[in-house]
Design goal:
alpha/beta, TIM Barrel, globular, binds 4-nitrophenyl 6-deoxy-alpha-L-galactopyranoside
Length: 492
Amino acid sequence: MKISRRGAVQACVLAASGAVISDPIRAWAQMQDEHYQASATHPVRSIQDTETPAQKRERMAWFREARFGMFIHWGLYAIPAGRWDGEKVPGIGEWIMNTASIPVAEYKALAPKFNPTQFSAAKIVGLAKSAGMKYIVITSKHHDGFALFDSKADPFNIVQATPFKRDPLRELAAECQKQGIKLGFYYSQDQDWTAPGGAALPYGGALKSREHMPPTYHWDRAQDGSYSDYLHRKAIPQLRELLTNYGDYPAIVWFDTPTKDMTPALAGEIVAILNEHPKLIWNNRLGGSYMGDTETPEQYVPAQGFPGRDWESCMTMNDTWGYKRDDTNFKSAEILLRNLIDIASKGGNYLLNIGPMPTGEVPAPEIERLREMGKWLAVNGESIYATQPTLFGTEAGAFSTTEKDDNGNPKFVPSWKWRSTTGHDKIYVHLFEWPATIFHVAKVSRDVTGAYLLADKARSRLKVTKRGDGLDVELPRQAPDPIASVLVLTTA
Ligand code: JFZ
């Protein structure tokens, strides 16, 4: 566990392409890691500590079947969209207040300008559904402290501080209920750059300035205050609001960036509240030594998944979570689909981000890619949802015998020929490269009784012959899908 988590954090740092993530963040991540290991007993036992394996299976069931969800990063940062005072600000869009050292009062002045009249919960939920996604996780409050929901606990929120006056979370909850998809809330419980006492981490370009110095990394006096007061006056009351005001939701609470301020005792106070919601799933980023339900690899797919743990890779389509008008570096639908298949073959979920614009609309390149993924899933979804990981295991790649990763461990070199998932009485093989007529299936722990292509509505049987320990499957000349064609092996 120790090694895999440390490796995960480091890989995450590497994968966030560009010089965006700083060494202090890396140091913080390592410190967190040690902290995480240090506390053997929790001051308040969490549901994960007390439930039986059967209860855990029941609580996690929908999540384990879902495989594909939509992350939404949306807030005031969509207005500057990566530029401040006419300058392009490096790094991820939702960090602009920190990266550009924007004073609290100046940042808060964005709220009266936030009027996303084009926001439509029906359209966004419809988009997620048409992409084949089974759940949505939206930023109810990011590190900038702005609540995207109706909050009595703090006035810096979309209903009280903007001309929009509507509660997008309420509208999304109603729509998700209607369209039958789960809704989760991201909540930045620890960092809050506009509430006195909220934590701040150093980041990217901001480090080069003389501001943001330890121990607080603050850049404005208005940020100073007691962390415990912040938690008791803002974060905990808002978490209570989120957990009680939205009917059956949230299905997930997605915490983020715990710092050492979040002691086990303080985290325990939050856990006591989470415990009142026995169906809730929450991630591993609360802090205070709590492991939560899910590992959250960010911007990468772990080489071998996280055996024994539920996990969810969160990723951007371009290089930012929050909308940035200058970021057009979008991954292709092909890469996104490969990621989804890769993740499913290792037993995880893919939480793929969109960053809506200040109007409330979703950027066109994001809509296009989601629709393309949805088209593929409409044909091939059976090979993804509610499947088990691969029975093979060597197809994903191998650890290099010569090259080392940043950590000094053997570097994992992925291979992109094929992946596999497992069904009740079927093995699915996702072929990225279409073999010249024969696909050889290595020895596997089940008896293969037949083969057909998932895209073939007639399910015409393909010729299967024994060769060595395994089987040869004879394929047609033409791949049914340019990105990934699914071969189904029926098994006894
Ligand atoms: C965090 C946020 O800071 C970011 O804005 C976004 O919401 C993302 C999903 O989560 O990003 C992180 C979290 C952890 C590390 C780096 C970035 N880390 O461990 O180095």
